[in-house]
Amino acid sequence: MAEILVLVDHVDGSVKKVTLELLTLARSLGEPSAVFVGSGADAAAATLAEYGAGTVYVADAADLTDHVVAPKAALLAQLVAEKAPAAVLIASTAEGKEIAGRLAVKANSGVITDAVGVSPELVATQSIFGGSTIVKSKVSTGTPIITVRPNSTAPEAAPAAGTRADVSVSLTPVDTAAKITDRVKEEKGARPELSEAAIVVSGGRGVGGPEGFELMEKLADALGGAVGASRAATDAGWYPHQYQVGQTGKTVSPQLYIANGISGAIQHRAGMQTSKTIIVVNKDPEAPIFELADYGVVGDLFDVVPQLIEEIDKRKG
Ligand SMILES: Cc1cc2nc3c(=O)[nH]c(=O)nc-3n(C[C@H](O)[C@H](O)[C@H](O)COP(=O)(O)OP(=O)(O)OC[C@H]3O[C@@H](n4cnc5c(N)ncnc54)[C@H](O)[C@@H]3O)c2cc1C
């Protein structure tokens, strides 16, 4: 079976859920091999094998992690040349998409970004124009390089050998031109990371101010989800910008997205329309967001959300 390379997204060896999703998807396309860059490969090995990586290529040189994204693209380009895989799968994060673009140039291959599915024939599905159009496309030149949105596939374990193969790459001055001088750890609360969360509770201008987001947080915590926000809310300074969902914010594709007091502008939809189930709470029955809703409640969120939290708490006992 053809080899499918999966670039591992991790923090110090702690593998992100999206990588397990990519390995699961890769198993339907061929034989997955993980590409692990940086330190912590030993900690990651068991998880990568559990989710189906037959081989784990490990590149642990400081040069690869001290220089933003270019060295990772160089390493992948070398592996593509040496192993001739059937495809390369990368998480559709800001970093993942930049690596994919650079890799495509180096490998003289086509690239597809923001896929929400890939068929065994390597036809990728994208959802564009605010979800109004579904595009099916296939790379016709070189090795297909496809970035896949988090939460597009349910991760399923299927143990494989996970044989470690150490690899190295010689980098050019261009690859190492941009140096990382400092790393600051983001303060992480108990909530899941927004783009990876299975449940996202978002608030818009309708929440009325920063205190409205306390209610969003309460609902998110009752459900074990993350909090998101519309740009109107982040621009007003009611919630930090890193939680903005949409065209100029994060793209999310959770199992459940709850939009509270959000009208559904095209730029907001662009970041959430591939969510599996969408619940809308809005007091305006004409709000365009209802077009996307699987379940909609026409009402004041300050009436609806507290009742929702109460009911969830009751059911949880
Ligand atoms: C280039 C560009 C990029 C952009 N990128 C983004 C982006 O990434 N993300 C993004 O979100 N936007 C983005 N925008 C902005 C976007 O166009 C909208 O202005 C924004 O999404 C509106 O946010 P909102 O829905 O919270 O506010 P509004 O459009 O003002 O909607 C508020 C909604 O709350 C409802 N409401 C009010 N009070 C209550 C209540 N008590 N209970 C229930 N419902 C209530 C109202 O009925 C209304 O539907 C971008 C715009 C541009 C031009």
Which key features would you list for this structure?
alpha/beta; binds flavin-adenine dinucleotide; 24% strand; five-stranded parallel sheet; 9 helices
Structure description:
The chain has 317 residues and is an alpha/beta fold. The protein has 9 helices and 16 strands. It has helices at residues 17-27, 41-50, 62-65, 70-83, 94-107, 210-223, 231-235, 266-269, 301-316, and strands at residues 3-7, 10-11, 14-15, 31-37, 55-59, 87-91, 111-118, 124-128, 133-137, 145-148, 163-166, 199-203, 226-229, 256-260, 277-282, 295-298. The chain has a 9-stranded mixed β-sheet, sandwiched between helices. The chain has a 5-stranded parallel β-sheet with strand order 13-12-14-15-16. A two-stranded antiparallel ribbon has the order 2-3. Helix 2 (41-50) links the parallel strand 4 (31-37) and strand 5 (55-59). Helix 4 packs across helix 5 (94-107) and helix 6 (210-223) packs parallel to helix 9. The chain binds flavin-adenine dinucleotide. Flavin-adenine dinucleotide binds next to helix 7, helix 8, strand 15 and helix 9.
Compact description:
By secondary structure, the protein is of the alpha/beta class.
Strand order within the widest beta sheet: 9-8-7-10-6-1-4-5-11
Helix fraction bin: 25-40%
Structural class: alpha/beta
Question: Ligands in the structure?
Answer: flavin-adenine dinucleotide
Main β sheet profile? 9 strands, mixed
The SSE order reads EEEHEHEHHEHEEEEEEHEHEHEEH
How many E strands? 16
How many helices in DSSP terms? 9
Q: What is the averaged pLDDT score?
A: 95
- Content of β-strand: 15-25%
List segments where confidence is low: pLDDT < 50 over at least 5 consecutive residues. none
Distance between the termini: 49 Å
**Basic shape:** elongated
